[in-house]
């Protein structure tokens, strides 16, 4: 999946008609802590608190132009994708049915409803909810929004487009991996703009499907994906995404829930920003690799700040949220 600079510029014009570009700040306390220039791409500052809204805007725009007969969408999510889709779909006059697993984030669920979603809880994890969303979409004549699609990636790539235009000489960028739109969009933006940064994928030690799949050279599903970094809690990889990050990422790093919790605390103390688990995972990976990155110019994607209050309180008190 490749995009030209014009492809991304057009997507960026569309996205920024609805939201301003997000900043990429160099925080001095992070630099002091890590011995590197660290740029934080603040996707926690979008209208839904996550990068996913970018892909929602381009996808729904594409849907309206290519399938004008569609009256509603259906999708599955752990929260951020669902918020973006609900916001963009309802703004376009479409209904939005969103499936989440049981026990999903209470506050992300509330936000999705507030953005206009009809929320349905089903199954014990994202992949089970996704299967049900596909079934119901076919049954009810709704347009399924998959977790990975060219138009989703083109929209998401606009944060990489902003980042590499602002800081073209980055040495490395750390990106979390769930279903893969974020890392694939970052790779696409780097390649389109001719940047040379290493793209380093980050997964949870408890949800390693992306890493295992890259190492095996084929999709490898896992039995479970129990992590409080719910944006990375995926059991089954997306083959189309694997094809891109398997070739385009320099490596994939695993981080523990304990490391992610510490990165959330560091974000709060060093930048006064709120990070959810997946949003903090890139910083956790950079902290793990600080010796190798010393003296270099590095970016981390703070992909979202939508963490439940009880979990955040637990993290600030030195704990690690437990997932049933």
User: DSSP strand (E) fraction?
Assistant: 15-25%
Please provide the count of β strands.
10
Rounded to the nearest angstrom, the radius of gyration is 18 Å
- Tally of DSSP helical segments: 14
CATH architecture grouping of the largest domain = 3-Layer(aba) Sandwich
The total tally of domains equals: 2
What is the rounded distance between the termini? 37 Å
CATH topology of the largest domain: Rossmann fold
Please state the structural category. alpha/beta
Strands side by side in the biggest sheet = 1-2-10-7-8-9
Helix content: 40-55%
Report the principal-axis shape. Answer: globular
Quaternary state reads single chain
Query: Main sheet, how many strands, which sense, barrel?
Result: 6 strands, mixed
Q: Averaged pLDDT, please?
A: 96
Please identify the top-level CATH class of the largest domain. Answer: Alpha Beta
Q: Please mark out the parts with pLDDT under 50 across 5 or more consecutive residues, or reply none.
A: none
- SSE string: HEHEHEHEHEHEHEHEHHEHHHEH
Briefly say what this structure is:
By secondary structure, this protein is α/β, with parallel strands linked by helices.
What can you tell me about this protein's structure?
The protein is an alpha/beta fold and 324 residues long. The protein folds into two domains: 5-51 and 150-316, Rossmann fold (3-Layer(aba) Sandwich), CATH 3.40.50; 52-144, Rossmann fold (3-Layer(aba) Sandwich). 48% of the residues lie in helices and 15% in strands. It contains 14 helices and ten strands. It has helices spanning 5-16, 28-34, 52-66, 80-91, 106-114, 126-140, 150-166, 181-193, 209-216, 239-248, 257-271, 277-288, 290-293, 309-316; strands at residues 24-26, 37-42, 72-76, 95-100, 118-121, 143-144, 172-176, 198-204, 251-255, 297-302. It has a six-stranded mixed β-sheet, with helices on both faces. Helix 8 (181-193) links the parallel strand 7 (172-176) and strand 8 (198-204). Helix 1 (5-16) packs across helix 7 (150-166), helix 8 (181-193) crosses helix 10 (239-248) and helix 11 (257-271) crosses helix 12. It starts with a helix and ends in an 8-residue tail after the last helix. 55% of the residues are buried. The model has no long low-confidence stretch (mean pLDDT 96).
């Amino acid at each position: 999946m490749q995009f030209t600079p014009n492809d991304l510029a057009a997507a960026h014009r569309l996205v920024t008609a609805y939201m301003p570009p997000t900043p990429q700040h160099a925080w001095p306390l992070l630099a002091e802590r890590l011995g590197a220039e660290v740029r934080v791409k603040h996707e926690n500052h979008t209208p839904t608190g996550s990068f996913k809204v970018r892909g929602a805007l381009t996808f729904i725009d594409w849907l309206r132009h290519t399938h004008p007969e569609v009256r509603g969408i259906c999708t599955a999510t752990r929260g951020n994708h669902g918020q973006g889709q609900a916001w963009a779909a309802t703004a376009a006059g479409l209904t939005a049915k969103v499936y989440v697993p049981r026990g999903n984030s209470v506050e992300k669920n509330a936000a999705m409803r507030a953005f206009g979603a009809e929320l349905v809880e089903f199954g014990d994890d994202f992949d089970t909810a996704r299967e049900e969303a596909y079934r119901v979409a076919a049954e009810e004549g709704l347009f399924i929004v998959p977790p990975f699609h060219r138009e989703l990636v083109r929209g998401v790539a606009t944060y990489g487009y902003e980042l590499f235009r602002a800081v073209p000489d980055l040495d490395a960028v750390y990106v979390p991996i769930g279903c893969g739109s974020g890392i694939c969009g970052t790779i696409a933006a780097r390649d389109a703009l001719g940047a040379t940064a290493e793209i380093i994928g980050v997964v949870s030690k408890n949800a390693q499907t992306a890493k295992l799949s890259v190492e095996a050279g084929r999709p490898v599903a896992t039995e479970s994906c129990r992590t409080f970094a719910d944006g990375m809690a995926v059991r089954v990889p997306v083959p189309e995404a694997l094809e891109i990050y398997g070739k385009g990422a320099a490596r994939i790093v695993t981080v523990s829930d304990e490391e992610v919790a510490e990165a959330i605390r560091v974000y709060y103390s060093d930048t006064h920003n709120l990070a959810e688990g997946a949003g903090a995972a890139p910083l956790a990976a950079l902290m793990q690799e600080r010796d190798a990155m010393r003296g270099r110019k590095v970016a981390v994607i703070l992909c979202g700040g939508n963490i439940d209050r009880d979990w955040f309180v637990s993290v600030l008190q030195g704990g690690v949220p437990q997932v049933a």
